[in-house]
Automatic annotation (TrEMBL):
It comes from the Bacteria. It comes from Chryseobacterium polytrichastri. This is Plasmid stabilization system protein ParE. InterPro entries: RelE/ParE_toxin_dom_sf.
């Protein structure tokens, strides 16, 4: 199955990494990168099912980066689209808008 990273996800990940470079250590950033690789592999292997959003059951999420970051994605027929990376301390009211952007 093909995994695609949306433009919104790319931008949100860049913003998170910029923030983390100030607040976290290089080791913690490496953990985040490792978690993203592990997520990719579990999606390819199809071994884990993640929780869905209540109002958008086609959008699922998982916690990564020491449970500080939510990775939102959508499973389509032939591909998985990573929609957004969300730092859990950000304003949750902005989340709905960003998820519906794609």
């Amino acid at each position: 199955m093909k995994i695609i990273i949306s433009e919104t996800a790319r931008i949100s990940l860049d913003e998170i990494i910029d923030f983390l470079q100030v607040k976290w250590t290089a080791k913690e950033i490496a953990v985040l990168q490792t978690d993203i690789r592990k997520f990719r592999q579990t999606m390819i292997d199809g071994i884990i099912k993640h929780q869905s959003l209540e109002k958008s059951p086609n959008i699922k999420f998982t916690l990564i980066g020491k449970k500080q970051i939510k990775l939102f994605y959508e499973i389509k027929t032939e591909e998985i689209v990573i929609k957004l990376f969300w730092h859990c301390k950000k304003d949750p009211l902005k989340l709905k808008h960003l998820l519906n952007k794609e």
